[in-house]
Amino acid sequence: MKVSYTILQSDTFLGKSFITKLPLLKLEFSKLYYMCLIDTGADISLMNGDLGKEIGLVIEKGEPFPVKGIDGVIIPSYIHKIEFYIDKYFCKIDAAFSERFNFPFGLIGRKDFFDLFRICFNQKENFFEIVPY
After folding, report:
1. Would you list the domain boundaries of the chain?
2. Which of 36, 68, 87, 107 has its CA 20 to 30 A from that of 129?
3. pLDDT by residue (tens digit) across 59-107?
4. Are 44 and 84 in contact (CB under 8 A)?
5. Phi, psi of 101 (to 5 degrees)
6. CATH number of 2-132
7. pLDDT score for 86
8. What is the per-residue burial (b if ≥16 Cβ within 10 Å, else e) of 44-61?
9. What is the pLDDT of residue 77?
């Protein structure tokens, strides 16, 4: 499946702007969808606690998993097995959910997801591909 990068303008705290190309995927749950950034640097997928509640999870009943970001701050999260579709492809992965994760998108990390798909980034031509194994 070939997916175009999402192009966004980003502003820095210094007032400079630049264009960002993001590899965003739409995860389709039974009643909603959620946009996630493919993050090759993330060990596990991380999503907002509100999404977890919307799909019927009791967040704190998952396996406790403290997440440490690149800023060094540790946020409490809880791992749950989740199921969703990407286009016509069924996916079942572990994902950590946190009430304190306030990123505008979820993060798709390597655990489980990268075992389901071969992922090829083509930054120059503004697309990426995911191919099921």
Report:
1. 2-132
2. 68
3. 999 999 999 877 888 999 999 999 999 999 999 999 999 999 988 899 9
4. no
5. -85, 110
6. 2.40.70.10
7. 96
8. bbbbbbebbeebebebee
9. 97
